[in-house]
Design goal:
6 helices, mainly alpha, 181 residues, single chain
Length: 181
């Protein structure tokens, strides 16, 4: 297996772990996240990333959960963000768990395809990075999303909120892979 195939397999395994958690939460809560407005979703991503950074800086967790579950949360909320951008938010749960998983799978596949293209072009540079750098880059992407939301889409050169969500997903998956190695 060459290095790109190894990365692809690791990426798929990490996303499968995230999907499993997402599916279990759908069972417990249904697609309750459908009521999240864009800004609330961005704040949820922010909370997850800030918690990772705090754990990296202090090494202390008073609630007993580590960094890994937060990276899983970033992947899953990133995909939820893409679904919300597509469907808009709702006042009630308006999609079934099966529909939510279909959307999830489509965006997870899109994230994989983007990662493959970027990984080729950047020659696996992510492997030489520290996990803390992924955290900082994710926080930067979240700040960009906040600015774009505040500008109500009137940006000049931005790639868009969806591109930032995709990058958040991919950096979080890289974090999961690194934590497993």
């Amino acid at each position: 297996m060459d290095r790109f195939e190894k990365t692809n397999a690791q990426f798929e395994a990490a996303v499968a772990e995230c999907r499993d958690i997402f599916s279990k939460k759908l069972h417990d809560y249904r697609a309750s996240w459908r009521i999240l407005r864009p800004q609330s979703l961005t704040d949820q991503l922010f909370i997850k990333a800030k918690r990772i950074r705090q754990l990296e800086l202090t090494g202390e967790s008073l609630v007993g959960e580590g960094i890994r579950p937060e990276f899983v949360g970033l992947v899953n909320y990133g995909i939820v963000g893409l679904i919300q951008l597509e469907l808009g938010f709702a006042d009630t749960v308006d999609i079934s768990s099966d529909e939510a998983l279909q959307h999830y799978d489509r965006y997870a596949q899109a994230a994989l395809e983007l990662m493959k293209r970027k990984n080729h072009d950047y020659d696996e540079a992510w492997r030489g990075m520290r996990v803390s750098s992924y955290t900082d880059l994710i926080l930067t992407k979240i700040e960009r999303v906040k600015e774009m939301e505040d500008l109500q889409g009137a940006t000049l050169v931005s790639e868009g909120i969806d591109a930032n969500y995709m990058d958040i997903i991919n950096y979080a998956v890289f974090g999961l892979i690194k934590l497993s190695e």
